[in-house]
Request: fold
Amino acid sequence: MKKHIYKVLAISAILSLGACKKDFLNQSNPNAIAVENYFKTENDVLLAVNGVYQSLRSSNTLGENSGLFTDERSDDAGRNDNQSNAGEPFQFNDFSLLPSNSYLRSHWLALYEAIGRTNVVLTNIDKVSFANAATKENYKAEAKFIRAIMYFELVRKWGPVPVVTKQLSTADEVKENTFRVPEADVYNQIVNDLKDALNSTLPNFQTGANIGRTSKAAINAYLGKVYLTMAGTLPANKTENLSNANIYLMVAYNMKAFGSLSEIPYTDVFDVAKKATCKELIFQISNKQGDISFSSSIAANNQAKGETINSLKPSTGIGGNVKLDLINEYETSDLRKDFSVKFANDPIVKDWFITKFRDASQLATNAGYGGNDWILMRYADVILMLAEVNMLQGNDAVAIQYLDMVRARAGMPLYAVAKTDATYAAKFPTLKLAILHERRVEFAFEHQRWFDLIRNFTAAELVTYLKAKPQSSYGIAKLANVTLKDRYYPIPFDEVKLDPVKMYQNPGY
Reply:
């Protein structure tokens, strides 16, 4: 069990499920401040809430470099060099993932560690007197929001998972809470947390120094996405879940501070100089340009050898690899393609790489300390979810109106014109596939694609969809490996060992 430092204060006894043994728990750090003695002032709570937000930044939770668990699982990105097929990361893309995979275990533990931080705040906040009761409720709302989105990650990837909503301080408490609950119960907790967060006085949008904290628009948008996912993945209450998805997405949509999406150029969404003023952004992880500790590395990490478009930092590798399958899906003249990807001609690369995230300014330095914020929710997402939910409700005309908002901003023909094109019609013969296509090219490399696939296809349909793709456009990862088991990740081996009955393994592993 780690001791987590918030500023200069050490908070102990934050337990990740399965991460500690009893003898380790019984050890004490004479320099640490026990949780029960830590929370004295409003500022103590603020520092703890800041520590909760800090957990979002990790590459093992939702940070900009967490694409291994999302994009590299999908048909958008992967690892296509000769050295990749020997390492554990390749297992995600190759559909050969093992329960013993150390990256998988780190992801699981980091998500629960973040949840543990939220539980510490929520368990202890009532010990503190606040000058303004609204401040206290807002801190609770922020903690519940982050707990909700962490459980949203867990349930979509693993299905039934343990749900813990209080601080765990002993090995016995950990053991008592180490059991998987049904997916519907996980989603109920997520919905309850998000609805509770709406009962705060958080602003509709955060501005200035508060950018990176949650808001009413973000909470509503996530509630919409959660209900839409429930409608697509749970067998019960589909009609009700779609209705709720539409309600909360419309609330978020009606909060927008712009008229038409076309008012906001696509490139502005990712422009470091405009990240504080871009009206499309709803929730983002804020980074500081030029700062060694809080800068973004995504621009430099994605750049291929011999290229300079992303960053001043020289690259010696292949950068962020792009599957040919995605390249082939872009329509002719789609401006999002030229902005998002580029072919690297260097002899050791000769492949497509990601250019969507750029900071080649002097302020980022040649060390690649970029200022890119990591966007977790933006209005194009809300708009295309509204297209999806209306399509599922049988309101095709309304769905197409939302779809066309995104296509118009990208300079693409509206849907009625596009579907008269033989190539487009052959690739996307249904409105469902047209919306899925639009989401793919709009949100490429934003860690959305895998979730879009599992929301829109059953396990059997997903296998059929992926295996229909030509292996030649998929890279060295083997599509032949895809089976029904790959809808979910395996429960990490160390977690199953804790209790093979209560922490049962997912089928196929």
Q: What stands out?
A: The first strand starts at residue 4 and ends at 6. DSSP finds 21 helices and six strands in the chain. Residues 1-28 have pLDDT under 50 and may be disordered. Strands lie at 4-6, 9-11, 281-285, 341-344, 351-354, 374-378.
